[in-house]
Amino acid sequence: MISIVNLIIGGAAGTVARYGLALAVNRACGAQFPYGTLAVNASGCLLVGIFASLAEEKFLLGSNARMLLMIGFCGAFTTFSTFILETSHLIRDGETLRAFMNVMVSVTIGFILFRIGVWIGKVI
Question: Which of 66, 40, 72, 71 has its CA nearest to residue 54?
């Protein structure tokens, strides 16, 4: 039960933090480029890296804290951070080709499906 509560709290906080950071960055930098999303993705990667190190190398985060911070907060803040973490784990485990494929396939399929979704949205 505590795990679900941690997911809810972390997810809510990550969602609010994502909105707030993106809004602040876009106001400061303008809308010519998705600076807010870039800031969210970059900071999410930094945070999930810190949390992963604290959990996996220093053993300072238990399962409840990982659920709150890594899955709840970072997961709601940006799934890009999870994508980077999983790709990093593939590299760490000696699966460099799989890591490269994860990046290439995820970006390619994501973009293609986005464009298909745009097309479907126009047709409906």
Answer: 66
For residue 34, give both structure tokens: 């998705």
Yes or no: say if 85 and 49 are a contact pair by the CB < 8 Å rule.
yes
Closest CA to 51 of 88, 3, 90: 88
Would you call 13 exposed, middle or buried from its count of C-beta atoms within 10 A (0-12, 13-18, 19+)?
middle
DSSP secondary structure code for residue 2 in this structure: H
Q: How far is CA 119 from CA 14, 105, 106, 111, 116, in A?
A: 31, 21, 20, 12, 5
25 with 86: CB under 8 angstroms? no
Instruction: Find out whether 74 and 14 touch, Cβ atoms under 8 Å.
Output: yes
- Rg of the chain (C-alpha set): 17
Spacing of C-alpha 84 from chain mean position: 8
Predicted model pTM: 0.77
Q: What is the pLDDT of residues 79-113, one digit of tens each?
A: 888 899 899 999 999 999 999 999 999 999 989 99
